Amino acid sequence: MQISGNLELNLHPKSGKTAMSNLIGVHDCKADAKGRVLFPIALKGQLLEVIDRGFVIKRSIFQQCLELYPRPEWELVSRDVNRLNRFVKKNNDFIRVFMAGVREVSLDGTGRILIPRDLVNFAGIKNDIVLASAVNIIEIWDKEKYEAAIASTTQDFSALAEEVMGSIPPIE
Known about the structure:
This protein is α+β, with helices and mostly antiparallel strands. It has one domain: 3-Layer(aba) Sandwich (Chemotaxis protein chec). It contains six helices and ten strands, in the order ββββαββααββαββαα. The chain has helices at about 40-45, 70-80, 90-100, 115-125, 145-155, 155-165, and strands at about 10, 20, 25-30, 35-40, 55-60, 65-70, 105, 110-115, 130-135, 135-140. The strands form three sheets. Strands 3-9-10-6-5-7 form a six-stranded antiparallel beta sheet. It has a two-stranded antiparallel sheet with strand order 1-2. A hairpin with a 2-residue loop joins strand 9 (about 130-135) and strand 10. The longest helix has 12 residues, at about 70-80. It is globular.
């Protein structure tokens, strides 16, 4: 459901209630040797309406991190990917790489998610990690890599902000 501007709400299929897609927060966490991470309470609270539907985790396209999609957000992305003509080679190549390593995950009985080993290796996750909201998804980073990515972007952030957001008209 689209509401004024870019704020989007999704209807929860069981309750019929809406869930906002604007997640907030950066959370330091620990991953155990098996790749299990205790999901932060603050994120659980923001995802109450959709948490029982689970998540999809995948490799990021642009960074050495992972992306955790609440199921309703993944359904929107996969709907767009499904529109691609598979008889065009570059579309097929894109789909193959985009879907590489994609897994369904959910919270276990103790509130943890299990990050599959191949995705832990892709993101270079050690023990200290960061779960960072990225509007409608959660990025999962090795803490050192996250801090380095933020530091490298911060240097030119004012120019980036002007280029990316400068032409967007204000909400009236």
